[in-house]
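pinging the channel bc i need a second pair of eyes. not urgent but kinda urgent?? the chain im working w is below, pasted from the shared doc
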Amino acid sequence: MPRTTRRSDDNSSPLLSQRATLILLLAMLTGVGAAVLMAWAGRHPAEAALVGVGALAGGTGFFNWIIGG
């Protein structure tokens, strides 16, 4: 007899709050924008990716501070 697991979708809660989602979205847009600008300026793709990750990390803290963390 196969086991069936019941999922209770009535009590499901979102993985991230709206505030966390907004902060991460803005930080990701900042990181992608920085990487695109670096690539557009003719820099090596790896350097552009590193700058994008750095901007994402900095943007996360910045937007957390701005939005009221």
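so Helices lie at 18-40, 45-67. and Residues 16-67 form one domain. — does that match what u expected or am i reading it wrong
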